[in-house]
Structure formats: C-alpha cells, structure tokens
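User: Predict the full complex structure for these chains.
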Amino acid sequence: MNLFQQLRLGFRSLLLHKLRSALAVLGILIGVTAVIWLVAMGEGVSYQAQQQIKDLGATSIIVRSIKPAEESSRDSGARMGISYGLLREDFERIITNVPTISRAVPMREISREVRHREHFVDGQVIACTPDYFGMTRLRIARGRALSEVDIQTYANVVVLAHEAAMKLFPIEDPLGRAVQIGQEFYVIVGIAVQRSAAAAIGGSLDARQYDRDVYIPLSTFRSRIGDRVATIRAGAFQLETVELTQITAVVDDMKEVDATADIIRSLLQRYHKVVDYAVVVPKELLEQAETMRAMFNVLLLLIAGISLLVGGIGIMNIMLATVTERTREIGIRRALGATKGEIVQQFLWETVVLSGTGGLLGVIFGFLCGPTVNGVRRAVGLFLPEVWAALPPNIRNLEPRLAPWSIVAAFGISVGVGIVFGIYPARRAANMDPIEALRHE
Amino acid sequence: MNSDRAITRGSNAVGVPPVGAPSADVVAAIRGVSKVYSLGGHQVKALDNVSIDFRQGDFVAIMGSSGSGKSTLLNVLGCLDRPTAGQYYLAGQDVAVMDDETLSRVRGRYLGFIFQSYNLIQQLSVVENIEVPLSYQRPPMPGGRERCLKLAELVGLSGRLGHRPTELSGGQQQRVAIARALVNNPHVILADEPTGNLDTATSHDIMNLLDALNQAGRTIVMVTHENDIAERARRIVRLRDGRIESVADVRPALLSTR
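Assistant: Here is the predicted structure of the two-chain assembly.
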C-alpha cells in the first residue's frame, strides 16, 4: 500500500467511531492551539518589551531622579518642601569626567495644564535641550525643533506633540500662536509627528501617552517655572525641588556601555548621600529581557509538553480500544498475508492520521490567535470600558506574534506524540495470535 | 454414489510417508505432522503423525467430531500454526521451519482463506475487501484492480462493488470472501465450514461455486461436519483423536477425468 492508501485506510477506520475519534483529535487540537497561542502571546509581550528597550537606545545610559523615602530626603524642612534628585552639577560632572560619553541630554519634566483659550490639555511639560529630539528620534512634522538659540535666549517657545496640537487648535494653524503654561505664554514654533503610545520614549520605562507632551527649552523652564514645583498629592500640598528629572547619556560603542554606567554610578555615589537617582542601562534590560524570553519559552514548552502528553494518552486510550475492537480484522489481515510489521504500520498510520488531523486543525486555530485577541479587545473596550481603562497599557497594546517555529514545533510534536503513543497499541495488535484473533467475537 | 466409494482404513490411506519433497503435481503435503498442546501440565495431542498429499485440482473435505483435530489441521495447513513435529511442504518449500514473517508472506502468496463467518472487513467496500490480500503481496501483483473486478463478476457481485458487507446477505458475503480467496491466485484454497452460517439453498449455491472453481483446476481443502456438503468434494478425510481415520474417494480426481 502506498502512503495515500495508508492514510485513506486510517481515515476510514477512524470514521467507524466518529465521536470517539473527534474527541481524540480535540485533545491534540487543544494542545497544539495552546502552544501556538501561548508562544504568540509570549513573543508579543517580549517583542513589546524589546522594542521599548531598543527605543531607549542600546548605547544609552539613563539616570533618573527618584524621590527617596520622606525622612531621608536632603533637607526635610516641611516648609521648604523636599528637595531631591539629579543636580545640574551632576550633569556637568558627568559630561566633563566621563570621556566615553559622546552626547548627553538633561531634562526636566512636570505635569501641567496647557491652555489655549477654552481648550486645554493635561500634558507633560518636557524641558530639554535640542539634542533631545535627535536622541529620542522625535521628528518634527511642521515648523522647527528647539534650537541652541532658544536655550541661550531663554526663549518662550514651545514644540507641541501631535495630539496636544490637535486638541488645542482644532481648527486654526497652531504655528506662530501662543499657548499658556502656568502663568506664562509660549510661542509655538513646531509640531511633532504622531507617535503611538509606547513605553520608553524619553527614557521612562512606563508606557504612557506621549502624544500630549509639550517641549520647551530647559533654560526657559528654569527661569519661568523654576526648580521648586508645587504638587497636590492625596489632598496635601507639597513642594518639591528637583533640578533635573533625567540625564540621558549616549556612548559611541555598545562595548563601552557597562564601563560608562559604572563610572556614572560611582560619580553619583560620591556626591549623593542618599540614593535619589536610578541608573538604567537599556542594554542590560535588553539582555534581561532576552533571558526572560528564553525562560518563558522553556516554561511554555513545558506546558505544551504536558498538554500534548495528555492528548497523547487520550490517543493511546482510544487506539487500545480500537485494537481490541478490531481484533477480528487483525486476524483476517494476518491470515490474508499481513506481517506483524504491516499490522504495526497500519495502526501507526491510524494514530498519525488522528494526531496529524489534530495538529493541522490546531495550527489553523493557532492562526486565529491575532483576530481572536483583537476581537476580545474590541469586545472588552465596547462592553466593559471601565475594565478596559483599568488594564495596563502593556496588555491593551498587546499584539500576539505568531512564531513560525512554534507552528512547526507544535505540529511536529503532535505527530510525534501520535507515533510514540501509537506504538504500544499497534504492537499489541501485531502480536496477537492470528488464530485467537480470528476466533474473537 | 456412496457404494462406489473406496474406503481404506488407517495408515493404509496414505501408505508409508515418503521422505523428502513431494512430487511436482503435489501442491501441498504434510508428512508425519504432530501438534501437541500443553494444557495445565497435560500434553494434548491435537494431531498425531498425520500425513496427506494434496494434488493439483484436489477437492478434499476434512471431517471429524469436535476435538478430532480438524481445526488444528486446517490451522497448520493455513500456516497459522506450526506443527510440533513433521514437515509441511507448500509449493515445494518446507514451511514448518519458517519464521513468522515468512509464514505471513507464504499465506499471502500461496493460500486463500474462506471462513464460516465470512470475515470481511466492515469498513471496506466489496471491491476493497477483495483487494485486501493484494496489498500484502511482495512484490506487488500487477493488474490488481482489474482482477478484483473480474472476480467480483465471477462470483456474481459486479452490481454491488461499492456496498459494505453489512449491506449484503450471508450468501453474498461468502461470495465476496471467495473472490477474496482467489485474488492472489493461490495454490490452495482453505475453507473452514464455508456453509456453516448459511441456509440450505444458499449453501447449495456456494458449493456450486466451489465446485466450479475446482473444475477449473483450483485445489480446495474444506473442513465441514455436514455430510451432504462433504459429499460435494472429491475425497473425504475423516479424523479421530488427531489421527486420520479414513480417506474416501467420492469422485475421481480432476486430472484423471480429463
């Protein structure tokens, strides 16, 4: 018998018990689909994380101010508010003392309401230097970016992110007009291109909406808004003095990243009694993410292995029943000239048809992963908006990524499971005494 | 007819078993075959030094009460069971010493089986059932499908090729089984109570079919316990306690009539 005939025979024999065969196929189908889906989700999450980290730049080192615990802050006079974080001196020290750094950008960031007449946006005010635009690959759609001249002249100019511009100026052209931030007015000189919500732009690892940012010169921020900022948190009025929110340093060669990060750490350690800063190295995060991904994949394969094992046991169970039931057929075939090997083959093909069908259907269902996730996302967004809003952006933005290897592996393993779990029933069939088998009722 | 029957008793029936391979027109021969089973420490002799020759065109009915060893003899002849002692020559080879795989090939190549309960494979159609022995031919037999169709026509089932065994009557199922037993062009057809499950009229039809096959030169060995069925054979071999009790010629052998 050729391959096609073997498969056809297997298929027809399985059709003798449609429900039973369908259940066995279902076991494998679920296993294979689960593998593909889980791997796709895992790949989606890790891809997202890697993109975020890559956006930070593999050659960059990010130092951020962190608010220390209340009692340990630098001068905790309640009247004066607290003062913590990176200092302009730190920035100077870093760029003068660390030779491997090719560029460094200081940045200050606060939440402020930005107004134009009756329109307003609750956005982040990012005070930075012109280098910021290059470093974060923030492109300007119209007008211009901030310039050195703006910094030197303490100019009251602003660049708006896409959505901020749209909200503040639904009809008019914003270029050349003014927006109000706090008490001051700033002239709009440029509008940035639209960016989707993602993490890591500007150096934060939290995913947030970057499309409502407004960018002003760092020098202007210092003179107009100042280091001391009042915030109202949990009903309490609080003064915070922070000179810089973040310093982003970039080295030329990825090999220098670790050493440079160590120098920066020790430099900051010397001048900061309390640790009110954090050094983030995207390259390290990237490596960590790779390790996490590998561990995650191992875990998934374990789960996959277990589910396929269960499916395989189901198949073995069914094949044992089949063999017992078809004892007579086995006897007939043996009498008509089938060798033991040919009987083994016949029943093995049957299990392969069973598990292969499950595997194939599982792959088809696997491809439905993306549409299904989108459907669920849309449904949740539509019917349970509060739940949707409460979900972290990482989950809201999750795009499953089908991994080709998972499809090949899942299908291959399912067929392999069929063979492994089919051998015992098939051998049992072949080793029957033909005389006994013919007598079997 | 009965009065014409020449009856010889006991070992005289076969005479002194010749040693070595049988002559050319003997398609199957067993020589001094014994089969001993051990049941709970007891040695049971199912066959005790049995020797028979089956010539080309022979039609032998094997009779005997239950426990006489006729099933064991048929199993040995069918290469489903190996004798404890003695030789079995089939197509000039001693099959008593062959391993399981070779025996399977020998069954597929030289033997055709007809069973009491037809033993068709339920999930296969008529034509596919006839085809089953062909799938075990090494090397494959050419012109398989045409042969099956011809045989289906021969047994009068051309109109039911696509039917499943469950859609056929007992007589029709046995016809399918006979076609299946012929498809590999066997040296010997072994029939185990071929009419045991059939009514008298249908039995008659089936026996006519076997008779016609025998007339065409087929060698048939049939186990039966019905006298009128056995009468349709050329020779009747009676077994008792694992020994040949008698061999009776009912009709002259095919070769001598031509």
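Residues 3-53+287-439 of chain A form one domain.
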